[in-house]
Specification:
alpha+beta; Glutaredoxin; 2 domains; five-stranded mixed sheet; Glutathione_S-Trfase_N
Length: 128
């Protein structure tokens, strides 16, 4: 979900210093060569700006002019479309689909490591 944000002169990323999803977005911003400001957010003490912009008060949250986005995958897709060069995904649909499958498998494999829990459910990507 996106919401209207206060106009800012520079793209701003609300980021958790040790949050892996925030780190993913910072990597994309660096790969794209995008100028941005970073606001480090303490998990138990979100700044008022973040509270006002994101009803979930979650990181990462990206503010680009009047647009506010959260959820790392949504932010990364937006950045790849807004700044198309260099592209993050392959040009060809088959290669793009394979890349998405690999990313899904990585996300599924690392989730138990991040949460300390294993759902026990097999990954759909591994079943076929």
């Amino acid at each position: 979900m996106a919401v209207a944000a206060n106009k800012r002169s520079v793209m701003t990323l609300f980021s958790g210093p040790t949050d892996i999803y925030s780190h993913q977005v910072r990597i994309v911003l660096a790969e794209k060569g995008v100028s941005f400001e970073i606001e480090h957010v303490e998990k138990d003490n979100p700044p008022q700006d973040l509270i006002d912009l994101n009803p979930n008060q979650s990181v990462p949250t990206l503010v680009d002019r009047e647009l506010t986005l959260w959820e790392s995958r949504i932010i990364m897709e937006y950045l790849d479309e807004r700044f198309p060069h260099p592209p993050l995904m392959p040009v060809y649909p088959v290669a793009r689909g394979e890349s998405r499958l690999y990313m899904h498998r990585i996300d599924r494999a690392r989730a138990p490591l991040l949460t300390g829990r294993d759902s026990g459910a097999p990954c759909e990507a591994d079943s076929g």
